[in-house]
Predict the 3D structure of the following.
Amino acid sequence: MARKRLLECSFLIPIRRDRNLSDGGAHARKAWKWLHSRLLDFGGGTRDLELKEGWYADPRHGQTGDGSVT
């Protein structure tokens, strides 16, 4: 029997909240546990433990937001 084709989905989640929209603090452990349980409901997942640096232009206030890890 042929195996069902799977669709791969990737997404990045900043380890800290946005400094422009929030306080820039780390996400609560409860939020990470919630995400993990939702991925288990979905059927599994993988994660990369290497930190990445990123940024974006926030059109609401014209400032650059970042995915700073510091």
Q: What stands out?
A: The beta strands are 55-58, 63-66. The mean pLDDT is 81. The chain is about 20% helix and 10% strand. The longest strand covers residues 55-58.
